[in-house]
Amino acid sequence: MMDLAAIVMLPMSIVVFAHPDAARGMPFWAFGLMGFGFVALALGYTLFVD
Questions:
Q1: Which residues touch 22 (CB under 8 Å, ≥6 apart)?
Q2: What pLDDT sits at residue 47?
Q3: What is the C-alpha separation between 20 and 1, in angstroms, rounded?
Q4: What confidence score (pLDDT) does residue 5 get?
Q5: Sign of torsion, CA 26 29 31 36?
Q6: Sequential DSSP letters for 8-37
Q7: What is the DSSP letter of 50?
Q8: Distance CA 24, CA 39 (A)
Q9: Torsion over CA: 10, 5, 28, 14 (sign)
Q10: Cα–Cα distances in angstroms (integers) from residue 24 to residues 17, 42, 48, in the given order
Q11: Interval 6-47: pLDDT, tens
C-alpha cells in the first residue's frame, strides 16, 4: 500500500511544483518528501520483516 501511495505522491509533487495553487498552504517539496518517505518506510518494513 505504501508503494502505491508513493507512486501517487511523486507525480503530485511535480504538478504542485508546476501549479502552486493546486495545493494551497502546502509547499511543493512536501509532496515529494512524503513520497520518498513512503518508499523508505515500505522498503525498511519489508527488509525488517523479511
A1: 15, 16
A2: 87
A3: 27
A4: 75
A5: negative
A6: HHHHHHHHHHH-GGGSTTS-HHHHHHHHHH
A7: -
A8: 25
A9: positive
A10: 12, 28, 37
A11: 777 777 777 777 777 777 777 777 777 877 887 888 888 888
* Closest of 41, 47, 50 to residue 4, by C-alpha: 41
Which cell numbers hold the place of 41?
518506510
Return the closest-CA partner of residue 35 out of 10, 4, 14.
Answer: 10
Cα 2 to Cα 7, 20, 24, 47, distances in angstroms: 9, 25, 24, 14
Q: What pTM did the predictor assign?
A: 0.51
Given this model, what pLDDT does residue 18 score? 76
Per-residue pLDDT, 41: 81
**What pLDDT does residue 31 have?**
73
